[in-house]
Design goal:
By secondary structure, the protein is of the alpha+beta class. Among the domains are: 109 residues, no CATH class; 70 residues, no CATH class; 66 residues, no CATH class. The protein is 14% helix and 16% strand.
Length: 649
């Protein structure tokens, strides 16, 4: 059929609008799946189909001349196969705005999911079959469509013409030259007739695409009451179900009416993701499956219920932290030499008295090592013996720049005198992404991060730095390693802003950063600050929200899944001068939640309120381990939300 005879001419993919109404049910003739398709223009072309009218049986030698349609929804859809039927609807076009060359009256074609003509999740293809319409009921209503076996004539050209006509009527527009058409072999009978016989090999069955083949053994999943099923075309299934009477579905086993006997009851929720062929999931026979269930029993065929056959032994599971806490018994060998009998000659003739003075040396009192830890002691010993080497930079929780009452952000907190860095180049391009890998100091304090809520000046300001004459800018510590270069620090600050500070700022517009980047020189003059603080790398910030208690900020971060490496509730007893420390790094996050306080009443109150979940570090004598600011840390707390400290003391 020539293009002139097509009843519902459309346009190329990029045409603006459609001028003629279209009939609703269409047959898929071709689909753009990747950039190799001859009609591919850009990524928006993916999923576009070329369709023919199902009633008129129209076709074209070139499928790209056929009308087109886009998926009606990209959130949850299945791409149709060639030959399947879809419904075409017309709706508002993307070429809507006059200023961009569009028009509000323009419409575009959109296609729905495949019409379920065969009630089959695998394929619902309905190829054209006008060749046999006049002879018998067409096979269009038959789920198991088969190609005509052979075409025979005394003339080879007539037989070939019959075959080509048949294939074109099926939608293979180029006949035997169509790469998707079934293959026929040319034979000659003993009477001289020429026969084009169907090659009935597996590779030559009805083609629904360039490589897709239907699984003949696949069955549809049986639905259950109130269930929802999502099925792929080749046995990929997701089944949302509930427990029913015994045998209703794969999770309905040992069902009883007693909700307290430990067995499943009707109505328990379940979701099963599986790869299989059967009408019901089978955890043993399916290729793979995931069962998410609520108090259900799953029947699994075990290879053996005799644990001895596995040559294994069973040990109860222990919590890793409890294992670490167990200090192994150390057997200390006696280093003193074995006693020997000492015989000394004595002159009894000497009767003068001998004065014997006994000197007892008092052993030095053992001091509790405030930094002693059996795990870390063992690691230190392994390092000293060259058994282990540390290559990763170790970052402790920072104490933060202690906030004093007079700290009112009254200055810009910047000291930018670079006289001591004459041998180091500076870089001030507004686009910090252009920073070289070489050792430079970045000086553009107006460079922005994330969505633009923060500039560099806000993340490097420090009243202490300004008072002490310390340059606190990215790249100052470049000699300390690759993690301290200006580019690395700027990337770390940007990641911190995007993942942590931006979302917190959106919730708490008054939020401010009291301490962000801290170079080595600044870190050294801050009382209690760790030399390996994440502040030095640009990975951490201390934040406050004036008018909002820090416990509320801490809990909001937890409850809204803000990612973090370390989150510290710092000095809640200081009220408006307390702060929250948050850090972020690329890669695996520790998600470590910590409380830091110097209030000796709050420490036992928190431990009493959350026994086992909040533990402040203690010395061997039971006293709290005190830092330089009289503070103690409760590291790795297990509670999600901390309380208002005023309710406890």
């Amino acid at each position: 059929m020539s293009l002139n005879n097509i009843k519902n001419q459309g346009g190329p993919i990029s045409q603006q609008g459609i001028s003629k109404p279209q009939k609703s049910i269409k047959r898929v003739a071709d689909i753009i799946l990747n950039k190799d398709h001859p009609a591919y223009k850009n990524s928006n072309s993916i999923g576009t189909i070329f369709f023919e009218d199902e009633k008129t049986g129209e076709t074209s030698p070139n499928t790209t001349n056929l009308p087109t349609a886009k998926p009606i929804n990209l959130n949850n859809y299945t791409l149709p196969l060639i030959g399947e039927l879809v419904q075409i609807i017309q709706a508002t076009s993307g070429d809507y705005y006059p200023d961009l060359g569009g028009k509000s009256t323009y419409t575009s074609n959109y296609y729905t999911s495949t019409i379920n003509v065969h009630n089959n999740a695998g394929s619902n293809a309905l190829p054209l079959n006008t060749y046999s319409k006049k002879k018998r009921k067409t096979s269009e209503s038959e789920p198991n469509f088969t190609f005509q076996k052979e075409f025979k004539s005394s003339s080879r050209e007539i037989a070939r013409k019959q075959l080509n006509s048949y294939l074109r009527n099926l939608g293979y527009t180029s006949g035997t030259n169509d790469s998707n058409a079934p293959k026929y072999k040319l034979l000659q009978a003993s009477n001289g007739d020429y026969i084009f016989r169907l090659d009935d090999s597996k590779e030559n069955r009805a083609k629904l695409g360039k490589y897709y083949t239907q699984n003949p053994t696949q069955k549809n999943l049986n639905p259950t009451e109130g269930g929802t099923i999502i099925q792929g075309k080749n046995g990929q299934r997701i089944n949302f179900m509930t427990t029913g009477p015994i045998g209703t579905n794969p999770v309905s086993n040992n069902v009883t009416d007693d909700p307290n006997d430990g067995n499943p009851t009707i109505g328990n929720k379940a979701m099963v993701l599986s790869l299989g062929d059967g009408s019901q999931e089978n955890i043993t026979k399916d290729a793979a499956s995931i069962y998410i269930v609520e108090d259900n029993n799953i029947n699994i065929d075990v290879s053996s219920n005799n644990v001895d056959s596995l040559k294994s032994s069973y040990s109860p599971r222990e919590e890793p932290l409890e294992i670490i806490e167990k200090i192994p018994v150390s057997i200390i060998p006696d280093q003193s030499p074995s006693p020997t009998l000492q015989v000394e000659s004595f002159n009894f003739a000497n009767t003068s008295s001998i004065e014997v003075t006994e000197t007892l040396e008092s052993p030095e009192p053992e001091e509790d090592d405030p930094f002693s830890d059996p795990v870390f002691d063992a690691l230190d010993a392994s390092v000293s013996e060259n058994i282990l080497t540390f290559e990763e930079f170790n970052n402790d929780i920072s104490e933060g720049e202690y906030i004093v009452p007079e700290m009112e952000f009254s200055t810009d907190g910047l000291f930018l005198n670079f006289e001591n860095f004459e041998s180091t180049n500076t870089f001030e391009d507004a686009d910090w992404n252009n920073l070289p890998e070489s050792k430079v100091i970045y000086t553009n304090q107006n460079a922005s991060f994330g969505s633009g809520n923060f500039i560099l000046a806000q993340l490097v300001r420090s009243d202490t730095a300004k008072r002490e004459g310390i340059v606190n800018m990215p790249g100052v510590d470049h000699d300390d390693g690759n993690l301290f270069t200006a580019k690395s620090v700027m990337n770390a600050l940007n990641n911190l802003v995007i993942n942590c500070l931006d979302p917190i700022k959106t919730q708490f517009p008054a939020m401010r950063v009291s301490s962000g980047l801290r170079t080595g020189a600044l870190n050294a003059v801050i009382k209690g600050a760790s030399a390996t603080s994440e502040h030095r790398l640009g990975r951490a910030a201390d934040i406050q929200v004036p008018g909002t208690k820090t416990y509320e900020v801490f809990n909001w971060i937890i409850n809204n899944n803000i990612p973090f490496n370390q989150l510290v509730w710092e000095y809640p007893e200081n009220g408006g001068r307390s702060w929250v420390h948050i850090s972020y790094k690329t890669g695996t996050l520790k998600n470590n939640r910590t409380i830091c306080t110097g209030n000796n009443k709050l420490k036992p109150a928190l431990e009493e309120k959350y026994p086992g979940d909040v533990k402040f570090t203690r010395l061997n004598n039971g006293n709290y381990k005190i830092g330089s600011r009289n503070e103690t840390y409760a590291r790795y707390i297990k509670i999600l939300n901390v309380p208002d400290h005023e309710t406890l003391i």
